[in-house]
Amino acid sequence: MAAIIQFSAIYALPSFFRDINLLLIILVFTLFFYDFRSALGVAIIGGFCLDVLSFNFFGFYLISFFLTLIFTEWILKSWLTNRSLYSFWLLILLATLANNIIVRFFSYFSADGQITFFMFRRSFWLILAGQIAWSEIFALLMFSAASAVTRRFQPFFLEKK
What we know:
By secondary structure, this protein is mainly alpha-helical.
């Protein structure tokens, strides 16, 4: 459903709202709150649906979501020690950055080098800033909703003995 909403509704919005990457947000949310296997399922199903609907080469979104998932899992296991809002924000930020670089890298090489390198284009940085802003807003809303539903992320205090 998220892939269909992403492709048919979000891409039809005005430019600033078009920067919402719903599948990436759901992918990171699933990895953060559940586990790698569930997130891998989201990456495969969401990537496949976007590949079927898009005009890029088949596997474009599957590969980009898979590589983003691997990078995000590594960050989650190696650097982040707790499951807090700040960790979730950092994970969303790094996943958005990694996904944009991967997607633009594939786009650059699939266009036979006829366009300028994406890092030198102002539009890349504006789209990246918009995606990060939307992702962080959704991260705050999703983390707040998840914290309200479960006690898993409530602060705890050690008792002195």
